[in-house]
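Here's a chain:
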Amino acid sequence: MSTPLPLLVLNGPNLNLLGLREPEVYGTQTLDDVRALAEERAAQHGLTVDVRQSNHEGQLIDWIHEARTGHCGVLINPGAYSHTSVAIRDALAAVEVPIVEVHISNVHRREAFRHHSYVSAVADAVIVGAGVDGYALAVEWLARRVRA
């Protein structure tokens, strides 16, 4: 059996500041902690992850396009772009691999502008408010889809 392509784990704007920015909302774990968690959980399923972060919408879109042929699934925390980016939504709609949207905080308990996500409409699953454990849950879900 051949080794599957890696899972693409994308992190949007300001997630490079995890552990520093608003720890009362996002916790104290860093993006490196998220990477380690995703790597560990993927390895339990014989998978690998390709973890990336950008504060730039166009860069995220280019990476989403790469997922069409270079990845077996996409886990995306689009950050604030969830609520503003039709372009990221459209790129994800074209990928044709399983997609999970993850948010560390419960966006539905926050400001009203965070209650709508363009990404949710094209995601196969959405995990909200589970902290960084949401990444592990998303990897689990994607691993089951990839192995099915």
Remarks:
- The beta strands are 7-11, 49-53, 73-77, 99-103, 125-128.
- The two ends are 14 Å apart (CA to CA).
- Residues 7-147 form a domain with the Rossmann fold fold (CATH 3.40.50.9100).
- The CA atoms of residues 20 and 28 lie 7 Å apart.
